[in-house]
Automatic annotation (TrEMBL), chains A, B:
<comment type="function">
    <text>Catalyzes the reversible formation of acyl-phosphate (acyl-PO(4)) from acyl-[acyl-carrier-protein] (acyl-ACP). This enzyme utilizes acyl-ACP as fatty acyl donor, but not acyl-CoA.</text>
</comment>
<dbReference type="GO" id="GO:0043811">
    <property type="term" value="F:phosphate:acyl-[acyl carrier protein] acyltransferase activity"/>
</dbReference>
<dbReference type="GO" id="GO:0008654">
    <property type="term" value="P:phospholipid biosynthetic process"/>
</dbReference>
<keyword id="KW-0594">Phospholipid biosynthesis</keyword>
<keyword id="KW-1208">Phospholipid metabolism</keyword>
<dbReference type="InterPro" id="IPR012281">
    <property type="entry name" value="Phospholipid_synth_PlsX-like"/>
</dbReference>
<dbReference type="GO" id="GO:0006633">
    <property type="term" value="P:fatty acid biosynthetic process"/>
</dbReference>
<comment type="subunit">
    <text>Homodimer. Probably interacts with PlsY.</text>
</comment>
<keyword id="KW-0012">Acyltransferase</keyword>
<comment type="pathway">
    <text>Lipid metabolism; phospholipid metabolism.</text>
</comment>
<keyword id="KW-0443">Lipid metabolism</keyword>
<comment type="similarity">
    <text>Belongs to the PlsX family.</text>
</comment>
<dbReference type="GO" id="GO:0005737">
    <property type="term" value="C:cytoplasm"/>
</dbReference>
<keyword id="KW-0444">Lipid biosynthesis</keyword>
<dbReference type="Pfam" id="PF02504">
    <property type="entry name" value="FA_synthesis"/>
</dbReference>
<keyword id="KW-0963">Cytoplasm</keyword>
<dbReference type="InterPro" id="IPR003664">
    <property type="entry name" value="FA_synthesis"/>
</dbReference>
Length: 333, 333
């Protein structure tokens, strides 16, 4: 299998990306990596050339570029070339830590949608707090600014597929994010989506969940529209970051006592931080495309790159996308 | 001024409510309290009868009652009687810690909307993390399952009014919650709302904000639809609760070392908890009604009741609702 890597995307590129690829190359000798970006920069951090090819380009997409314009105008950007390689059948998946909007655009316009999937969704496996082995897949986290009930039904099917094939969950519990748990709750969108999800017999639909319960592991797959998903994800991130800062301030304000206390709690605080900031489940998938297109955080570290490559490896090994193509082709016959 | 108190609402009623009223009665000798509920129960916790009247009723609305049905059928419920008292001009405001949906229904159907305000919104002053004196007013937090752009404009006006009159902020910065900060971002709803807010010259509209930035104090008033507002509020609450639990577990897992560490950090951890759980800004206002209708958390403690009474006192003193009635009456002429 061959992974096209945008080596220039993210705050710490190319160093973090290249170092992460080197770790992953060691884990997965069956993967060939093609790194797109500035050759001289990439080579600075490359410790091995096993299964690694560099395709040089000077152009890249910046974090503040307007996504669709950037994709159309910067034809030789590292991200665009990586997506193009997948389109041309020269690679099996795209990895990037760059501009999320641009990667979504590259995914939709270059890699392309699976037939009969109307609106691919951005999906992440989010952590269940207190249980690092566990997680839940949520989509759409913001690929779309709004969705129809039919899209939410497709997200249920997509998420359930991913949870089964990639995460190995036998019969994933699929839930709808709503403003109350009762069946009658919701907006026009969620009421109709509830009906569609309930009538889809292939799903183990468990009904509505509220945002307060998400991190408790109430479901394996959580379905929502892109606007709400985006707001919820950013609320969780913002609250967690603010609380960690507050905790740090509380420790500093205690002076020497605080330092002593923090030292005694070192391991506990470290595991707290690890649980918050670092996902062993990999990056965000733009799911519903003809190939895996995966985004990891802009501030990514090599270990996170490695975990995301692991995720891509599982997606390719299980052929989850190929199975989706078959499934949705069948549905429409 | 006279406040109608639903003494039977909330998890710790009537004790927490009655004890909180006693504290507030001491702060505000100009307030008369009418407590609706089981007289014998209320009297158990009543240490003073200064400015306090009890109106006995055996009926109450439970937390799992279906809101609209409960309001219609339980004509003598403590919450219904309190709302009725305001409608009849026997009291100036309603306070409850009970069933939120039922209080919204009682507010809309018994107290009634201000003329020309289409959809009253649920508004809270949420904390700015790291700055306990500061906060921002956000609405709608879930009074409505969906909203039109015109409602969001009204929320901007309502929130700005509250921030000026009740919180004493000279020229409140009003922002729209959106899925990106750029002007062109958003759903159909937020794009139209953006235009309306920008054209409303009476507002100091500062544009879009993202959910990640909310707790940083980027705005004084944040406007959103009820579905998103509900999801965001619950995401913030859920994340904060989960992180505090995780911190507790981290401390316990360290055994003796953890206990020592936590002891050294005691004051810091206490202030962290205080900042998270306890709002000095009071409860949630169903704003846009003919009188203040205020909800405090079901798990409320006497000190929170006191702060919420303080908030109601300011709302009555500044006559913010009376001024809204005048303002919206004028708008429609």
């Amino acid at each position: 299998m061959k992974i096209a890597v945008d080596a220039m995307g993210g705050d710490h590129a190319p160093q973090a990306i290249v170092e992460g690829v080197a770790l992953a190359q060691n884990d997965f000798p069956d993967v060939e990596f093609v790194l797109y970006g500035k050759e001289s920069e990439i080579k600075k951090y490359l410790t091995t050339e096993n299964n690694i090819t560099i395709v040089h380009t000077d152009e890249k997409i910046n974090s503040d570029d307007e996504p669709v314009k950037a994709i159309r105008r910067k034809k030789n950007a590292s991200m665009v070339l990586a997506a193009q390689a997948v389109k041309n059948g020269e690679a099996d998946a795209v990895f990037s830590a760059g501009n999320t909007g641009a990667l979504l655009a590259a995914g939709l316009f270059i890699v392309g949608r699976i037939k009969n999937i109307e609106r691919p969704g951005l999906m992440s496996t989010l952590p269940v707090v207190g249980n690092p082995e566990s997680g839940f897949d949520m989509l759409d986290l913001g690929a779309n600014a709004e969705n129809k009930p039919e899209h939410l039904l497709q997200y249920g099917i997509l998420g359930s597929f991913y949870a089964r094939k990639v995460r190995g969950i036998g019969r994933p519990r699929v839930a709808l994010l709503n403003n109350g748990t009762e069946e009658t709750k919701g907006s026009e969108l969620t009421k109709k989506a509830f009906e569609l999800l309930q009538n889809e017999t292939s799903l183990n639909f468990i009904g509505n969940v509220e945002a307060r319960e998400l991190l408790n592991g109430v479901a394996d797959v959580v379905v929502t529209d892109g606007f709400t998903g985006n707001a919820v994800l950013k609320s969780i991130e913002g609250t967690a970051m603010n609380l960690m800062d507050l905790l740090k301030t509380a420790i500093l304000n205690e002076g020497f006592k605080g330092k002593m206390g923090a030292m005694l709690l070192k391991d506990g605080l470290r595991s707290l931080k690890a649980e918050m900031y670092y996902s062993k489940h990999g990056g965000a998938v733009l799911f519903g495309l003809k190939a895996p297109v995966i985004k990891t955080h802009g501030a990514t570290v090599p270990e996170a790159v490695r975990q995301t490559i692991k995720q891509i490896h599982t997606m390719l090994e299980t052929n989850v996308v190929g199975q989706l193509v078959e499934q949705f082709g069948k549905n429409a016959e």
